Amino acid sequence: MTPPVKGDGMRGLSVFISDIRNCKSREAEIKRINKELANIRTKFKGDKTLDGYQKKKYVCKLLFIFLLGHDIDFGHKEAVNLLVSNKYTEKQIGYLFISVILNHESDLMRLIIQNIKNDLSSRNPIFITLALQCISNIGNREMADAFAHDIPKLLVSGDTLDSVKQSAALCLLKLMRTAPDIMPTGEWTTRIIHLLNDQHLGVVTAASSLIDILVKRNPEEYKACVSLAVSRLSRIVTSTYTDFQDYTYYFVPAPWLSVKILRLLQNYPPPEDPSIKSRLNECLDTILQKAQEALKSKKLQHSNAKNAVLFEAINLIIHIDSEANLLVKACNQLGNFLSHKDTNLRYLALESMCLLATSEFSHEAVKKHQETVINALKTERDISVRQRAVDLLYAMCDRTNSEQIVKEMLAYLETADYHIREEMVLKVAILAEKYAVDYTWYVDIMLNLIRIAGDYVSEEVWYRVIQIVVNRTDVQGYAAKTVFEALQAPACHENMVKVGGYILGEFGNLIAGDPRSSPLVQFELLHSKYHLCSPQTRCLLLSTYVKFINLFSEIKPQIQHVLKQENNLRSSDVEIQQRSVEYLQLSMIADADVLATVLEEMPSFAERESSILSSILQKKKPPVDTLGLKEDKIEKSTHNAQNGQSGLEAKVAQVQSVASVQPIDLIGLNSTPPSTKMHTPVKSDQDDLLDIFGGPAPPPTQSAQPAPDSNNLDSLFSDTFGMSTQIASPVAEMAPFSPILSVQDNHMQFIFNNMDSLFENEALRIFVTSEFKQNLARLSLGFLNKTNFVFQNLSVQAVGSNELVRVVPRPLETNAISSQSELAQVLNVECVNDFSECPQVLVQFSCNGAQSRFELNLPIFLNKFFDPVQMDSQTFFTRWKNLSNPGQEQQKIFKANFPIDKDRNSQTLINFGWSSLSGIDPNPENFCGAGIIHTSTQQYGCLYRLEPNRQAQMYRLTIRSNKESISKRLVELLDNQF
Amino acid sequence: MIQFLLLFSRQGKLRLQKWYTAYPDKVKKKIIRELIATILSRKQKMSSFLEWKDSKIVYKRYASLYFCACIEQEDNELITLEVIHRYVELLDKYFGSVCELDIIFNFEKAYFMWDEFVIGGEIQETSKKNVLKAISDQDMIQEEETPQGFFEDHGLGRNGRKWYNNATIGNILKMVNAVYFF
């Protein structure tokens, strides 16, 4: 049988495609395309009106050229014209072009929406379907506004065809994603939920996707869907494959729908109603049972569909996390998959087991498969599968198996793929620390780690080793002995030299009694590496040497000799030179007591949470750059969040290690203004540190005050050095995360300010940067996750329908925020008319199983839409007089909050957004100025006069504008700000 | 939700793209380049799943064509593989032993088929019969709308054969049936 020709024989299109395919070179192809583009352009511009068929053909050619990767900058109008056609095929091509090529913010959008409206109200269902498909393909804010009302009706109406209902459900879902505020509630809720009972399985499938997102937005409202979903699931699970006709896929009844329902149920805790709960458990049990049964077909499709349902059921079982029986069964089933010949199944089984390992009920059951997993690590040929195996080993590690798992991971590291080594190093480091009972084991593991994968050992990791050794007296001698041995290897990694240098500098005396590691031997061993090391390491070694002078006075001459060498004393590296000079001087002028004080052993490190733990969680952070944020400030804060804070503890360690070689600091003169010379190394970190220790950003009034730099610096130092008295415990515990249900934001601080921290607690910081231009604004809310958990399903939605200020969140590229990283949500804001209430957004995310949900006042005030106006005295008073209708003037007298300062007041007024004009008021003490408020509806001119009374320490503020509500609001905003 | 779907050839040529997340064109091109390079460099027996940024990639090769879908963290990989497979089946049924050239020359049909099957990144209709019915309804209308004698005028037989040479391209569904492990 010869298949029929498809398409409607757009011969010209086929010829064109063939031509392109016959092009021998890229150049020839481009030439042919340019010829065609020129041709189409002429046709579109020509006087002869093209008929629908021709228009369709050319639009189709443009589409093809676009798909080849070329930009198309014309033809949009013609494509939109096709929508008007009453021929289905022409309309269809028009819609296709729009869906594939058109930008979301096209000038033609209004026209397109009009055409969609026409097609939606058509009596022909195929036109309605085209319109719905187009809405779901583009689904921008304008469409949400235009169609939010009609689509739910279409969805639940009895007259609608099933296929149209399906499209309508998914169309609504798409619009919900763009514009969460269009959420249907009230009477719609029940009707939408009841679509789960629809007779048509296609409708149920589409509806369950829609309900899933509705539930995510408002679980309470849609709670009733649970029982319907469970009974639907139960009917599918207990059916035979013949019951569903075409909805059975390779002998699996309705696999897509089953997966969707199982997903939907994961939005809720286990059902409270015991009968529903037991019915659900029966379903899950049956699915697990069926997994044991023989396959009904040898086709891969059969087993894929069946296992898709199984894996989703296991996800739900893990989510419920209270049915020990099901958890263990699930674990056993996954265990079978671990040695399955299908790579995909092995991959997924390892992944799911990771979750099972975290449940108290199934942790032991997972551990039974340890050998298989270790084997996977050794034998899997696919790196992504090996990666899963590493993850699983990490998840299943506990006190009982840590030794073996760490050993196996270390062994694997020697051959591991380069790009997962760094992550593996972190994992090994964390496990070794977490489960160390015997710290000699810890030291061995860590030194091995550096030996095997030195290049991948980040600073955080080796700082941590040092912190632990410094803090634990029982292991110091062993550590000194072991590093000494490790350093004897002919080639050893620079990180080993660093750790070795530091540890011997502190504890070399503990092994100096043995003639094989006498002071001189230690020194010579270290110094034999010196010339191969980077300047940074050399600096560290110099500090070790000066510490040796204190520990072993007998080798002082040798060390002084090294310090005096040309390449140190006159090194081109400033830091090396400085250290050499200072240490040499110190060794010459200070007597033994001073030396002993200055070069005393490091005090214990203040215990903070292990920074390596956070860096492993951070590994998976999504890139935020694609959001296209150009604001430097945002980038900067993101940068700080990523680099500065992840290494928080590391930074502290770094400062401390530097401090150990800076005599002045150690003696405790921390109130002495630090000389820049001595602090070069600290200085480089200062910005980050200020950020870390400074906590929330400075208060808004700060712009008018000198920045308290010196204070911050003091607190930095007292923080760095003052904590050393705290008793350290080596294992850092994760702080539990408590969900945030309401916040005290400080949005009022933004009246004069466009950038600040809006909210901060121990888990979350929200940093706002905003830009205003006429009646429009763009806000970026930077969410910084300060916890060690991942924030998931972040959503930011406008609350209520503030008709005066419209807030539109830009779609997020990702809705998860990894630990210690930041995600920016951009909001586009339009000031429709003057307003008093700040708009609010609803912020939701889940973290560690807890749902946070709170409303946030956006720092958007009427004065932000000001443009200052300059004018002369005459104009000012003419306008002033014109605004004398009742209500247009608002006045307030208030007490001065600050000493009356002319410059400061003038600055405050300018920061408020309007002008501060001089020489207008006869009294030079008074302030006058003007501004225009931009809204989409209208512009409003505003004038003010601020009269200070120094004797009484009072102000009188008078504001006139052409609208009473505006004058009132501006007075409110400025009240008490002087 | 499926965030996007890409079809590309073994030579790395993009044949179809469908996006459900709004990215600027530049970003789209970068993503396409990156993914094609990554997937083409993977060996055949490797798993069909990849972690990619904050999402998951599910891909499968049918003869000379790769079908690649990007899904969200919470989505089910295996069922996505079967979304891809069902789409291939639909194309195959419609074109009759579909090959890469069918998709090149009738790319608009391939889009229409996908739009009947998946909307807004979510599966709309899993019944093969219903989707094919919708497409054949479209074809009926097309036939009605096409003027009589039109095809002859343009040198295409009504009951014509695929006029492009199809011989060298592997039949996709042959692969479908060959690729199972049991």
UniProtKB/TrEMBL annotation, chain A:
InterPro entries: Adaptor_Complx_Large_Subunit, AP2_complex_asu, ARM-like, ARM-type_fold, Clathrin/coatomer_adapt-like_N, Clathrin_a-adaptin_app_sub_C, Clathrin_a/b/g-adaptin_app_Ig, Clathrin_app_Ig-like_sf. The keyword Electron transport does not apply. Residues 693-715 are annotated as: Disordered. Its main location: membrane. Residues 753-859 form the Clathrin adaptor alpha/beta/gamma-adaptin appendage Ig-like subdomain domain. It is a peripheral membrane protein. Keywords: Coated pit, Endocytosis, Membrane, Protein transport, Transport. SUPFAM superfamilies: ARM repeat, Clathrin adaptor appendage domain, Subdomain of clathrin and coatomer appendage domain. One of its GO terms (molecular function) is clathrin adaptor activity. One of its GO terms (biological process) is intracellular protein transport. It is found in: Membrane, Coated pit. One of its GO terms (cellular component) is AP-2 adaptor complex. Signal peptide: none annotated. The keyword Zinc-finger does not apply. A 1,2-diacyl-sn-glycero-3-phospho-(1D-myo-inositol-3,4,5-trisphosphate) binds at R11, G12, K43, Y53, K57, Y58, V59, C60, K61. Adaptins are components of the adaptor complexes which link clathrin to receptors in coated vesicles. Clathrin-associated protein complexes are believed to interact with the cytoplasmic tails of membrane proteins, leading to their selection and concentration. Belongs to the adaptor complexes large subunit family. PANTHER family: ADAPTIN, ALPHA/GAMMA/EPSILON. This is AP-2 complex subunit alpha. It comes from Brachionus plicatilis.
UniProtKB/TrEMBL annotation, chain B:
The keyword Membrane applies. It comes from the Eukaryota. Pfam families: Clat_adaptor_s. It is a peripheral membrane protein. Transmembrane segments: none annotated. InterPro entries: AP1_sigma, AP_complex_ssu, AP_mu_sigma_su, Clathrin_sm-chain_CS, Longin-like_dom_sf. Belongs to the adaptor complexes small subunit family. Keywords: Coated pit, Cytoplasmic vesicle, Golgi apparatus, Membrane, Protein transport, Transport. One of its GO terms (biological process) is intracellular protein transport. CDD domains: AP1_sigma (cd14831). It comes from Brachionus plicatilis (Marine rotifer). Adaptor protein complex 1 (AP-1) is a heterotetramer composed of two large adaptins (gamma-type subunit AP1G1 and beta-type subunit AP1B1), a medium adaptin (mu-type subunit AP1M1 or AP1M2) and a small adaptin (sigma-type subunit AP1S1 or AP1S2 or AP1S3). One of its GO terms (molecular function) is clathrin adaptor activity. GO terms for cellular component: AP-1 adaptor complex; clathrin-coated pit. Residues 1-139 form the AP complex mu/sigma subunit domain. The keyword Transport applies. Gene3D superfamilies: 3.30.450.60. It is found in: Cytoplasmic vesicle membrane; Golgi apparatus; Membrane, Clathrin-coated pit. This is AP-1 complex subunit sigma-2 isoform X1.
